[in-house]
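Weekly sync, protein design subgroup
Attendees: M.S., D.O., the rotation student, P.L. (late)

Item 1: inverse folding check
M.S. brought a backbone from last month's batch and wanted to see whether the design step gives back something sensible before we order anything. D.O. pointed out we never logged the input encoding, so this time it goes straight into the notes. Structure tokens as presented (201 positions):
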């Protein structure tokens, strides 16, 4: 009889300990969980982001190469560049990525196009457009099939930076050879220059 009472007490004590343990676990879980309850006066959550202003001054809207032929880098750099100026009117530093956005109706392969730019440093290094990296600041553009990063700069408050960008067809691209029409014949290259901005820490 004493044995049965002892077993009953042990079982009862075990159940009580288990209930205390479950209660503590529930309490500590509830301690770390936030519960948000809406009401008729507070139905929506609104988040407004800050705007980054950037002044973009350019000469023409599009970059277009039609009826061109392959030329050397030296000759390509004697052509008329696409020019634009960026100004940061914000009271904080802004990171700017200069992009070449190849339009969807461009029929010429980007590997045929040479590009060079000058951001005031005076150094010009021609390169095939398709060897340029993709952008770091990701954003989608309508009507664009390829996007290449030309340069990434930081503009200080009220800072201004001017750019010149040259485009030409690389001299290694075949034209008409021995009566055979090369891959670039009858094709157009169409692109837009874009400046993508982000607040710089």
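Designed sequence read out in the meeting:
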């Amino acid at each position: 009889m004493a044995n049965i009472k002892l077993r009953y007490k042990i079982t009862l004590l075990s159940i009580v300990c288990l209930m205390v343990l479950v209660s503590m676990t529930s309490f500590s879980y509830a301690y770390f969980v936030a519960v948000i309850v809406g009401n008729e006066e507070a139905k929506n959550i609104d988040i407004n982001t800050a705007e980054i202003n950037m002044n973009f001054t350019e000469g023409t809207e599009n970059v277009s190469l039609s009826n061109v032929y392959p030329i050397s880098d030296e000759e390509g750099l004697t052509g008329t560049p696409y020019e634009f100026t960026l100004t940061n009117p914000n009271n904080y530093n802004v990171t700017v990525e200069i992009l070449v956005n190849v339009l969807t109706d461009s029929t010429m392969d980007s590997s045929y196009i040479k590009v060079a730019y000058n951001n005031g440093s005076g150094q010009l290094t021609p390169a095939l457009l398709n060897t340029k990296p993709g952008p770091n600041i990701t954003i989608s553009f309508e009507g664009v099939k390829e996007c290449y990063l030309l340069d990434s700069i930081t503009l200080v408050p009220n800072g201004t930076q001017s750019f010149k960008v040259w485009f030409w067809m690389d001299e290694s691209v075949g034209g008409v050879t021995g009566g055979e029409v090369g891959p670039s014949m009858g094709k157009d290259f169409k692109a837009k220059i874009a400046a993508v901005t982000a607040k710089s820490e």
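Discussion: The CA atoms of residues 116 and 126 lie 4 Å apart. The first strand starts at residue 55 and ends at 58.
Action: P.L. to compare against the previous round before Friday.
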